[in-house]
UniProtKB/TrEMBL annotation:
Record's signal peptide: 1-22
Name listed for the protein in its UniProt record: Extracellular membrane protein CFEM domain-containing protein
Domain of life the protein comes from: Eukaryota
Keywords, comma-separated and alphabetical: Signal
Amino acid sequence: MPSIYFTLSAAALAGFASVAQAQTNITTNACADGSNYSSCNRNVANNWSSCVNDCNGDGNCMVDCGCTAHQEYINCMAQSCWNQVYSCEYQLFVQQYFSVCPSAVEPIPFWPAPDNAPNRCSCDLGKVLQNTLTARKEQVTCMSNVTDQTVSEASNGSIANLGNGLDIAKQATDCACCGASASYSAAWEVCPNTVPTLAGADLWPVFFPDDMPNMYTSIPNWAWDTCDSTLDNVQCQDIGFNDSSDKFYKPGDFPRNGTSTLSNVAGTVTAPPSGTVITWSQASSTWTVTATGYDAKAVASQSDYRATATGTGAQYPEQTSVDNVNGAGNVRPVGGAVAALGFVGALMAL
């Protein structure tokens, strides 16, 4: 049976053909070294196309090709478009990478953007996605605990203590509702002024679609919109969920939706945020990327404030950031399971 990741990747590949002539949101002239950026993207697109052709229709092979291509696009950004890595466009691209690549793990360069970063997205998309990924892990653990407890009681002959089918289903329902709530709630908590779907409220079905095989087999007819009563009667923190904002909204009790679209906050990234050379890894691959198109004086001025690959817990130079929207225009949203499809399709056309 093909994995959900292959299903998403196949859809993405089909979509790329239709948007191949679209204009990328990160244009070449916005990058620190536009010429190298364009050349790098073109090479990645060609390699991706060759890789897919060599797969001869094998789904797992095509997924691997997509993972590699996304990783290499990140390298292109780190090399020659590092001045745009805090933007909505790049943050959406990382969101897509996690959506289509099953081996994607943190840390990712320049993601999520730090709170004080210039030219950052008006909504912290990285933090929203991190909450979703954490909720996924916690839900899997919660479900496993229910299964392990049931198996343990059965194997120990503790028939008297073995929960009946309804009890097991209730525990599994608690896990499912808390996981979904932790993910959905993040969009409203992290980006209360942003249109929820643009903030990432629709990420949960990407990672846990309701028809995913074997995910909710112990929960008859489970659906998110039935979770109100469950969340009234369970403390999600008590069953292993650790939402940073301690918010687990019920389907019928969410705050008012935000109305703002995505845009980039004013400011300029004047030197490679993680230094002129970065090293990062995914799965069994490690890359060392050297930045181009930077001014040596600008790099020297922030040499004491190097960013980590995750952008978490590190100091960042105060460059030219101001906390207002610069009117540069809204990021063109792309809906559905692959949020930044148009962006990558445009990259392939370069």
